[in-house]
Amino acid sequence: MGKVPGKLGSIPKLRILTVHANYLSGEIPSSFGNLSSLEVLSATANQFVGRIPETLRDIKRMRIIAFGINKLSGEIPFSIYNLSSLSVFDFPVNQLQGSFPSDLGFTLPNLELLNVADNQFAGPIPASISNTSNLMTLAIGGNGFSGKVPSFENLHKLREVSISQNPLGNGEKDDLEFVNSLVNTSRLELLEISDTNCGGMLPEAVGNLSTRLRKLSVGNNQLFGNIPSGLRNLVNLELLDLGDNQFIGRIPESIGYLQKLQGLWLNGNKFLGEIPSSIGNLASLTILDFSANLLEGSIPSSLGKCQNLISLNLSNNNLSGTIPTEVIGLSSLSIYLDLSQN
């Protein structure tokens, strides 16, 4: 608790400085720039304010810099982007502004984690990011990044790509073209593209993404067309969000292949036909939202096999018939049940 003493900057042989979650306040001391041997600077979850001091550019050996969940503001000095030894660049949940330098991928070639989520960044995602061949996590959601998402073709080690809540798309058919460049990232586990103003169809290549993929989120965009048939291949999916788009056609029976699904959102689209009986194969499902579509027919009794379901929303459709006793008898349904306006 309190402020960090500037005297800390007078320990030239210090290699690791970790002060996360200590309720520290005030500005980052400019004297930190004197820590010429420092390799790790971690101060996550404090209350630091003000700007990032330009003097940090002098810590040439720094591999990890982490100031997430603070109250830092202003722009990150461009000289910080020249610390070529950095593997972790971690500044989420602050009030930082500015844009990435166009040569970011060349000046920070050793990046493994780039996280500036929930700030106020703007401008394009630089195409040079394809040069960061060791990158495993790209988390830039909740900013103002804009423009076409570049190719990730050379980033074979990617595990998490989170670019949601940025005005990246133009509602055009090629907005999701970059997804094609992810088919060779065999370790990909998370892909979040929701709320990015992207248009077009969900590329067929989505079915060729890593079978390790656990979360796929493309909700709240302007996507249309049918669900790609190859989606059935993503057998380790736990969360699938296609909600609030303009998808059409029937919900495929093959949705039942995704037996590890825990959350499934197809709400706010134009799906028609009956709810597939294969939905009963999703034994791990806890949240199911098919609301605001054009679904018809009766609620399948197989839904009663989803013994872990706690939230079910089938409202605003054209469903008819009686509610199956198997569904009414679901003891797990304890949070939310909405069958209205059918």
Kindly summarize this structure in a few lines.
This protein has 342 residues and is an all-beta fold. It has helices at residues 104-107, 325-328; strands at 2-3, 16-18, 24-27, 40-42, 47-50, 64-66, 71-75, 88-90, 95-97, 113-115, 122-123, 137-139, 144-145, 160-162, 190-192, 199-201, 215-217, 222-225, 239-241, 246-250, 263-265, 270-273, 287-289, 294-297, 311-313, 318-319, 336-338. The protein has a single domain (2-338), classed as Leucine-rich repeat, LRR (right-handed beta-alpha superhelix) (Alpha-Beta Horseshoe).
Q: Which regions have little confidence, pLDDT < 50, spanning 5+ residues? A: none
Total beta strand runs: 27
What quaternary form is this?
Answer: single chain
Mean pLDDT: 95
Structure description:
The protein is mostly beta strands. The protein has one domain (2-338): Ribonuclease Inhibitor (Leucine-rich repeat, LRR (right-handed beta-alpha superhelix)). 2% of the residues lie in helices and 25% in strands. The protein is built from two helices and 27 strands. The longest helix is centred in the first third of the chain and has 4 residues, at 104-107. It is elongated, with a radius of gyration of 23 Å. Keywords: Leucine-rich repeat, Membrane, Repeat, Transmembrane, Transmembrane helix. This is Leucine-rich repeat-containing N-terminal plant-type domain-containing protein. It is found in: Membrane. It is a single-pass membrane protein.
